[in-house]
Amino acid sequence: MIPQSFIQDLLNRVDIVDVVGRYVQLKKGGANYMGLCPFHNEKSPSFTVSPTKQFYHCFGCGAHGTAIGFLIEYSGLGFVEAVKDLAQGVGMTVPEQEDRLPPAQRAQVQAKTLALSEVMARAGDFYRQQLRGAQNAIAYLKKRGLTGEIAARFGLGYAPEGWDSLRAVFPDYANPALVESGLVIDRSEEEGGGKRYDRFRDRIMFPIRNTKGQVIGFGGRVLDGGEPKYLNSPETPLFQKGHELYGLFEARQAIREAGYVLVTEGYMDVVALAQLGFPQAVATLGTACTPTHVQKLLRQTDHVIFSFDGDAAGRRAARRALEACLPHAGDNKTLKFLFLPPEHDPDSYVREYGAPAFEQQVRDAMPLSQFLLKEVSQDGDLGTPEGRARAQFEAKPMLQAMPPSALRLQIVRGLAQMTQTTPAEIEALFQLAQPVARVRAAPPRTRRTAPVGLERQMMRLLVAHPELADMLGESELAAVSQLAPDNAAMLMQLLDACHALGTQANFAALSEQLRATGADFDALIAEVAADTESDPQAARLELAGAIRQTRMQVLKAELDRLVATTNLATEEARERYRELMQQQEQLRRQAEVETTTR
């Protein structure tokens, strides 16, 4: 858990204009910066970045947030990854409870990571330079229909056939980082001795980039019929195959524009599809699709389509992808499976039948629910009790892996119909978490009523200027509570968040803290983000006026009740009436004084 104080300090040091400006072309427009929104298609700029609020807002699609939120949405990073990325840029070290390394050792680890990154970057540059003069490699790429433009976009290169070609760029060929990065193999310490030599020789090189665009590994393809056809970098401190996807860095914008991501089985599929009009393609790295892969994809889009060859190997890969998807399958996610004819991969299919035919294949892809039911029923005869029991046996671990949802219930109903049982029997037999079919679903928890009137005005001012939180004490909260109890609870939550930030509280830090509490404050944050910068002194006077009007309403309500219930028949009632009238008069005088001093 990263301390909130660190998040606040980080947002105070980071300039959101610099962060967003790395990815969006911004132009100064008044107090803010403007650009084309990276989260939806538009021709005229509606995307604004406020240097004073340290916040971005799109008037077109409503996207908004801090520098942390921008990295999460744009790069697909997790919260911790985004914080680390920003912290690294301003020379801060993220404190983590699980990080128990002494400072010196932690610095040593960071230095090693930096050294490996530099080695990989230099190797990538070397391979790209080598491709320019490698006629055999160029001929192979042209034969596959690739242009120089697409090769440059993906940074393709060529590893010469010599045993130690990397000496040309790394004179210190004994550098341990070359082995640790996977670029060089060292046999000198094995039995019988040996020597160092380049891992990749006479291969087309596909650099694998992380979400920041840094080269963390390579995939090398042979030019002839040699084996292995593809050779990948080994696992290193920079590169874990089960976490990374080839082409994701290059495809991020295209995924947003297309509204879906296409997951293929190979490097060449990704590069060829990008040239043929499908730049939203990515690929796993010589390993089965993992839940981490799926989670990473779902940060980019809610619509994922897996494309597999129609042969037995493709079916096995699809089954593993299905199992990886199940923990993340939900009612707001679309996960589909596309199977091409056995003789085709995506590249060959598009070239033979054209892009429109492939687009139709994508539209007709099989939904996860249909594929799951097809998988569990294909090995048994549903006309027999044994066959139906077999289908249930196959389905049980899959349904148990899914979170409770309407989608899971739909699959349960389909399985029940297929196996001549009821949904309730399936849920009981499988011991599914939070069963839906056999119990009456609890009514959904309603969100708090959105604040209106004076309460909303006060909250809006506090969101914009959290430093004004000290103006509201117990008496002010008590007044709001009498008029709108639910809004008082929301106001208290907002005040707690403001006080937690301390004297250095600002709009960006407060917004980031409120983001984790749910959607209650999202509308207010969006409104403040879209509004022009307000003067703190004017905001203070406006808040004081809202507080005073709230007290006036409370006094009036009590006066009305007093007259209605007692008719001022007792001395005690008349005395209380006079006190309330005096308080009203004092508030009126305060209002007059403030009006004349403005």
UniProtKB/TrEMBL annotation:
The protein's Enzyme Commission number: 2.7.7.101
Residue ranges covered by zinc fingers (CHC2-type): 37-61
Enzyme class, UniProt record, top EC level: transferase
Cofactor(s) the record lists: Zn(2+)
Chain segments annotated as coiled-coil in the UniProt record: 567-597
Catalytic reaction annotation: ssDNA + n NTP = ssDNA/pppN(pN)n-1 hybrid + (n-1) diphosphate
Pfam families per record: DnaB_bind (PF10410), DnaG_DnaB_bind (PF08278), DNAG_N (PF08275), Toprim_2 (PF13155), Zn_ribbon_DnaG (PF01807)
Cofactor remark from the record: Binds 1 zinc ion per monomer.
Residues spanning the signal sequence: none
Span of domain Toprim: 259-341
InterPro entries, per the entry: DNA_helicase_N/primase_C, DNA_primase_core_N_sf, DNA_primase_DnaB-bd, DNA_primase_DnaG, DNA_primase_DnaG_DnaB-bd_dom, DNA_primase_Znf_CHC2, DnaG_bac, DNAG_N
SMART domains: DnaG_DnaB_bind, TOPRIM, ZnF_CHCC
Alphabetical keyword list: Coiled coil, DNA replication, DNA-binding, DNA-directed RNA polymerase, Magnesium, Metal-binding, Nucleotidyltransferase, Primosome, Transcription, Transferase, Zinc, Zinc-finger
Function (record text): RNA polymerase that catalyzes the synthesis of short RNA molecules used as primers for DNA polymerase during DNA replication.
Domains as described in the record: Contains an N-terminal zinc-binding domain, a central core domain that contains the primase activity, and a C-terminal DnaB-binding domain.
Subunit note: Monomer. Interacts with DnaB.
NCBIfam families: dnaG
Family indicated by similarity: Belongs to the DnaG primase family.
Protein known as: DNA primase
Higher taxonomy: Bacteria, Pseudomonadati, Pseudomonadota, Betaproteobacteria, Burkholderiales
Name of the gene encoding the protein in the UniProt record: dnaG
